[in-house]
Amino acid sequence: MINLHRYILLASLAITTLTAQAQKITFTPQWTAQAQFAGYYVALEQGFYKEAGLDVEITHPTTSLSAIELLRSGKSNITTMQLCQAMQSKDDGLDLVNILQTSMNNALVIVSGNEETPLRKGIRVGTWSVPFDQIAIAMSLKEQLEYEWIPIASTSTLLVTGAIDATLAMSYNEYYLLKQSGVHLTEDNVYRFSDHEYNVQEDGAYTLRSYYQNHRDELKRFAAASRKGWEWAAGHPEETLDIVMDYVTRNHTVTNRPLQRLMLKEVLRLQTDRESGQREFRLRPDMVKLANELLLESQLLLNEVKYEDLIAE
Amino acid sequence: MKIIEHYRSSLPRSLSLLAVLLASVVFFAALAFMFDQAREAVKREAMERATQILDNTVQRADNILSNAETATANTLWQIKRQLHQKDSMVVYATAFMKSNPMMEGCSIAFEPYFFEQQGRYFSMYVGKEEDGSLITAIEGSASYEYFYMDWYQLPKLLDRPAWTDPFLDVDVDIDNEAKMIVSYGMPIKDDAGKYVGTLSTDISLSWLSQTISAVKPYPNSYSIMLGRNGTYFVHPDTSKLLYESIFTETLENDNPDRLALGQAMVRGEEGVRQAVVDGEHCYMFYKPLGTTGWSVAIVCPEKDILSGFHRLQNAVITIFILGILIMLLVMGRIIRRQLKPLETLAAQTEVIANGDFSQVIPYDGRTDEIGRLEQSFTHMQHSLVSYIDQVKRSVAAKASLENELKVASDIQMSMVPRIFPPFPDRDDIDLYASMTPAKEVGGDLYDFFVQDNRLYFCVGDVSGKGVPASLLMAVTRNLFRVIAQQGYTPSEIATKINHALSEDNEQGMFVTMFIGMANLETGRMDFCNCGHNPPVICIPGEPARFLSMQYVNIALGMMDGMEFQGETLPDIRGQRLLIYTDGLNEAENPSFELFGNDRLIETMNHVGGKPSRVVIEEMLEVVEKHRAGAVPSDDLTLLCLMLKA
Do A188 and A212 reside in the same domain of the chain? Predict the structure, then answer.
């Protein structure tokens, strides 16, 4: 009896210790530190994660280790990813679960280096060496534009020298970098995918299904705290910017405050659903369907990735 | 106000102030013109200087970059000779680094699978360590896909040699040390002219930064260098390097000037623009840097360019102000000394003006206006003294004459009855008379007396005025009294007086006269009018009127031997008569308007019913009012009579 009591006591002590100790989560956004991930920084810095009983560490990918690699290797538990990228990864066999969808609109644009429309046949178009360009490829195939895709490392030099004719850009990032490079941006030389039949959601937070199954509760709390972080960011843009600039400085991101301010504003704009006018934080089945159609048609996806397969429950 | 008063009260002070003010205006205009011209000249000179410095800097940088270009081109030629000898590449790269010690690195990078046995990546890199030794590496991996780097892609895509924009050579895996590097890349082509890779040589930006940063034509001027996309690669605020571009300020706010400047610079233009940088007006001198596509600019604050000019300007303004003050002081003293005699003169004339003519006006022998003024004053003083002497004598003479006249006036006034009522024991005669000479003595006369229950009276007016008239008046009055007392009728009296006056009347003077004789018992009045104004008669219940007469004789003394005609009024009792001289109806006001007969009648209508004294007093009052201060031009005599029943 005595022994049994001792066991019970020990067991209850162990449980108490476990619950009292915040669960450690490593979160890795998919790109260098910038306002694109402001909500997560805010959640950490404002203590929303801590309040949720989570010990979150935010790390950023390096040139040699991408966020998805970190996730795959278990060095990171959660990463952000664009919807198309997540679908492709899933198609490739990486079983991902969307635990929080932040983007409600597509940010992709094509910017032409001259005043003409970028929808010109056979032109050289700069793209990333990482797969953020699925929708653009799908569009170019659909429109039979026969673009020559040039993976580029820097944003504007090739465009301003005329080495390429146009470049892909995110409306919250490269778009403003191009503006900062003196590229004249007009209605004519900027093509916004979201304004056409390509409005597919982008950033969301993903984790491996295996991890999800063991950490449902923490992940729910992570999602709720992150969402709270984004809401706070929307309500406190300048304070948020201060937090972002801290991350930017620590991570040596080549940027500046005006660029980050514009980025934050645009990212927050993209989070608002066009139909409801709300920041909804949900994957839209119709957008998943649209993404499937576009990617399957352009053979960027071999099998359909269903909405139900992406979401947590 | 006190200052103005202070200056206005003194001629030297106000003169010197005026002179200084005038001089100030002239100087100021001249200075303003000079400053304007000088400012432009200084600006022009500064612009030429800054442009020259910029040209030299760019030239110097360009020389170094050209050397790199030439060295790279030489190596390319060697590479192309043995393009497929993979192992030669390290030799060329090493040789390049050894013969070009200012270079930081050399990459000979090829398209994927160019050397099949090397796989996807082959980039021969020889780089310089901090200690100067060389390291060799074959680069390229999944995490470093050099194909996407600007240094590789620019020559490839542009199909010509090209400079990259400066970039951070970050090797985070080793020591996270960042260096700013620029690369010059040339496309490597095979014999068929097909692009197979890029030869890229690296040069540290630090020497270029130092060269450009060192350009400092003015204490607060600085240099900047922009990449093709406007990014700052040289800037005194190092926090902007790579992180900001010349367009960053245009991201959130419209800044057309900045935008135009940035666009001109990235387009590779050369020029000068005015711009506001950090709230300060600056001149930006900009020029492209060789074939790099970069642009170098010198930013010169306008106040720096003009600092020498401003020093000069301040000095000149100080001298100007001091000069004006000294001028004011010196001019004041000089003018004061020059005008000193005037001051003395002013003081002495004041004394003279106060009556002391003994003052000696100084004369210091000057021949200018002031000397002449002194002489004129002396002359004037002498004239004044003699004139005042004359005046004194005249005044004394006049005083004596006036005294005599006063006596004469008293005598004359004593000739006519002046005690009223004249017949206190009789209540049937209401008579009152008044005589006012225009001068001390006059030519008017009146007289009356009662004899044998008859009242004799007369009013006369001698032609002319003053002493001659008064003498004739005296004569006439005596004649009247002497002749009338002999019991003659008025016409006989007139005839006799006329005769007496006409004799020896060489002066041609005459007397108008109304002579009356009233029987106090019956009220009958005989009268004779000798050229005199018709008297006014007031009959109770009737309006006053002039006495209508059958005969108006000529004045007395005009023609000897004349028989004067008399007339009779049956009974004048209860009727009032006013006999007067033309000093009444011809009294003038300042506008030379006569009192007039109408006014006379009107006044009599008002006062005719009152006692004779009142009639005359009120009549005099009305006349005085009419005259309104005008000096009487003629003697005025009034006699008012009413006999009571």
Answer: no
CB contact under 8 A, B157 and A262: no
Mind listing the pLDDT tens digit for each residue in A186-227?
999 999 999 999 999 999 999 999 999 999 999 999 999 999
Instruction: Give the H or E element holding residue B124.
Output: strand B123-128
- Length of chain B in residues, anyone? 645
Tell me if chain A has a CB within 8 Å of the CB of B243: yes
In a shared domain, residues A208 and A252? yes
Are B242 and A254 inside 8 Å of each other by CB? yes
Q: Are B523 and B566 in contact (CB under 8 A)?
A: no
Provide the number of structural domains found in chain A. Answer: 2
Asked if residue A300 and residue A220 are part of one domain, the reply reads yes
| Pair (A221, A235) in one structural domain | yes
pTM over 0.95: no
Question: How many CB atoms are located within 10 Å of the residue B433 CB?
Answer: 23
Residue A248 lies in a domain: yes
Domain match, A207 and A301 both: yes
* CATH at residue A189: 3.40.190.10
Measured between CA atoms, how close is B242 to chain A, in angstroms? 7
Are A143 and A29 contained in the same domain?
A: no
One domain, residues A99 and A206? yes
Which residues does A contribute to its contact with B (CB < 8 Å)? 62-65, 124, 129, 150-154, 156-158, 160-164, 176, 179-182, 252, 254-256, 258-259, 261-262
Residue B555 to residue B463: CA distance in whole angstroms:
10
Q: Please state the ipTM of this predicted complex.
A: 0.85
Residue found by looking up tokens 């006059």 in the block: B442
* Domain co-membership, A69 together with A91: yes
Record: contact B251-A180, CB cut-off 8 A: yes
Distances (CA, A) of A142 to A169, A191, B40, B528: 19, 15, 64, 151
Round to whole Å and give the CA distance between B477 and B218: 118
Among the three residues A160, A179, A195, which one is the final residue of a domain in this structure?
A195
Q: Give the closest residue to B168 by CA, choosing from B241, B93, B245, B266.
A: B241
Domain boundary (A157, A177, A195) is at A195
Separation in Å, CA of A169 to nearest CA in chain B: 16
Q: Are B75 and B92 in contact (CB under 8 A)?
A: yes
pLDDT tens for each residue of B347-364: 888 888 887 777 777 777
Alpha helix stretches (DSSP H) within B137-204? 150-158
